[in-house]
Amino acid sequence: MAMLAAKWAHLDPAAAMSWASALEGETKEAILPTMAMELAARAPGPAMEVALMLDGGQTRRDVLSFVSAQWAGAYPKEGLQWLRDLTDPELRATVEHRMMMAVASDHPSDAANYVMEMQAPEARLESMPGIIQRWVQIEPEAAADWVRGVSDANLRTASLQPMLRVWAQAAPAELRNWWSRQPEGTFRNEVASSMASIMAATNPSSALSYAEGISDPQLKAVALQNLSEP
After folding, report:
1. Quick one: which of 41, 148, 153, 214 is 20 to 30 A from 57 by CA?
2. How far is CA 193 from CA 89, 149, 184, 208, in A?
């Protein structure tokens, strides 16, 4: 029944939505989740309408998360604009993170810029590392240059560490070349300090080289002291 309802929704969305909205009880809870998830890939808007018809509870949250992620992955700009316009805080809490991760899969810069619009600092800190990790896999220098421009020190640090770990594992020489081109200053020192810590266990000579490249005397002393400890 649910599969037939999903096919019907593809052919005649208005009629199918009207029928679905009249369902009640166990029939509603049995049909709507499958209907919404089957619709999600090809018609995410109607799929979201169906998902929102579900009563509250874990099933509703799971279906909303799935549908919203499909929507954001297929139509990132439309999905992010829907998030921007969303006024229901409970619904936002359910779908926002999944949608951003879906957008970040192929459009990480859009996801990162959306995070910067978020009002809650803790939400930004939670979301940004995963987005930056994805971005650095696709466009490492673009991701790194974007992180450099983040003015919030806490958010920059939270983004920098996971980004450097991914990049250092995938292309350490490329990372080193990028770092060497950075102008003297706070960000260059932050990268060097982080890399000294990251490389300490696997490549001590590289870690030492980064530590010695720190221009801030106090930060350099701390990095070298950490490397000297067993």
Report:
1. 41
2. 39, 18, 13, 10
Tell me if 99 sits within 8 A of 69, measured CB to CB: yes
pTM for the predicted model, two decimal places: 0.80
Neighbouring C-beta atoms of residue 90, cutoff 10 Å: 9
Q: Please report how many Cα atoms fall inside a 13 Å half-sphere around the Cα of residue 90, on the Cβ side.
A: 6
Q: How long is the chain?
A: 230
Closest CA to 191 of 205, 202, 203, 209: 209
Residues 40-55: pLDDT tens digits? Answer: 877 788 888 888 888 8
Q: Name the one residue in this structure whose structure tokens are 């940004």.
A: 128
Distance CA 179, CA 170 (A): 15
Per the structure block, which two tokens stand in for 196? 């000294």
In the predicted model, is pLDDT for residue 13 greater than 90?
Answer: no
Is the model's pLDDT at 8 over the cut of 90?
A: no
